[in-house]
Amino acid sequence: MHQYSTITIDDLQLEYLEMGSGHEVIICLHGFGREASDFETFKSLLQPNQRLVAINLFAHGRSVFPKNRLNKDPLLVEEWCAIIKQLMNTLHISRFHLMGYSMGGRIAMVMMQHMPDCIRSLTLIAPDGLKVNMLYRFVSETALGRVIFRRIIRNPKWLLQLADIFKVLRIMNDKLHRFVYVQLESEVKRQLVYDVWLTHRKFFPELSALASHIQKKHTPLVLIFGAYDAVIPPRLATKLTRYFTIKPQLHITASGHLLLTQETVQLLAQEQPWSDKP
């Protein structure tokens, strides 16, 4: 079984990709500018009773968040949890394993905080949201920031020049400098940044509460970071792990930010976070 489907609640449409046909479900959330099919890499880990359900986050694939809500009415956590509950009803499940990569990791942490009884295990791969990004907060949560952001979409030249200056001053390293250029190189990509940032601007975990839920529910947690990741450096893991009385297992691979790889597959094969647990 390998097919795309959609579900809707009011003005929200969510697309998801199913891989496998088992009754035990692993929900997967991709990173910014990526897509559900990225998780095909992990199909080899599935047992006969398992299936991957990879979601296309809003503004990706055929998942639709209405543009007329972007400026003043972003996606609420309660709305997201409601549509996930509808997905669970559609899949005929009461609990699921959860895996999130990068931006998807930030959303996964929020889900763990707000619907902990539904989550059997949590796998976070270079998760965003461990540190407050003041630029993100400014451009997404203030009227002035959103005006500036819309102007950047039309003309990013001055921002790219600023990135060049930061690189010369060693405020920004080469990898992060390239990342900024890649994300802003076309108007389509700049519009995607705007749509995604504004849609999900209410989705930031409260890390102490998150850790409390994980420990209280004895939820298995796997943390994976890339040693050479300039976007989500592994040192940020301590922002979360410091709240645990028993430190969770932290894996740091010889990789950058692109972590949905066979090396990560092999690591998860050893950890077995989706093994049958009560």
Q: Number of helix segments? A: 10
Total beta strands = 8
For the sheet with most strands, the description reads: 8 strands, mixed
| Side-by-side strand order of the widest sheet | 1-2-4-3-5-6-7-8
Helix content: 25-40%
Mean pLDDT: 90
Q: Which CATH first-tier class of the largest domain would you pick?
A: Alpha Beta
Q: Superfamily at the CATH H level of the largest domain? A: Alpha/Beta hydrolase fold, catalytic domain
Q: What Rg, in angstroms, do the CA atoms define?
A: 19 Å
CATH topology label of the largest domain:
Rossmann fold
**How do the helices and strands follow one another from N- to C-terminus?**
EEEEHEHEHHHHHHEHEH
- Total domain modules: 2
Distance between the termini: 26 Å
User: Percent of residues in beta strands?
Assistant: 15-25%
Principal-axis shape equals globular
**Architecture per CATH nomenclature, i.e. the level-2 architecture of the largest domain:** 3-Layer(aba) Sandwich
* Uncertain spans: none
**Coarse structural class:** alpha/beta
Describe the structure.
The protein is an alpha/beta fold and 278 residues long. The protein folds into two domains: 2-131 and 204-271, Rossmann fold; 134-199, no CATH class. Helices cover 39% and strands 19% of the residues. The protein has ten helices and eight strands. It has helices spanning 77-91, 103-114, 134-141, 143-154, 157-168, 174-184, 187-199, 207-217, 237-241, 262-271, and strands at residues 2-9, 12-20, 24-29, 50-56, 96-101, 119-125, 221-226, 250-253. An eight-stranded mixed sheet has the order 1-2-4-3-5-6-7-8, with helices on both faces. Helix 3 packs across helix 4 (143-154). It is globular, with a radius of gyration of 19 Å. The mean pLDDT is 90.
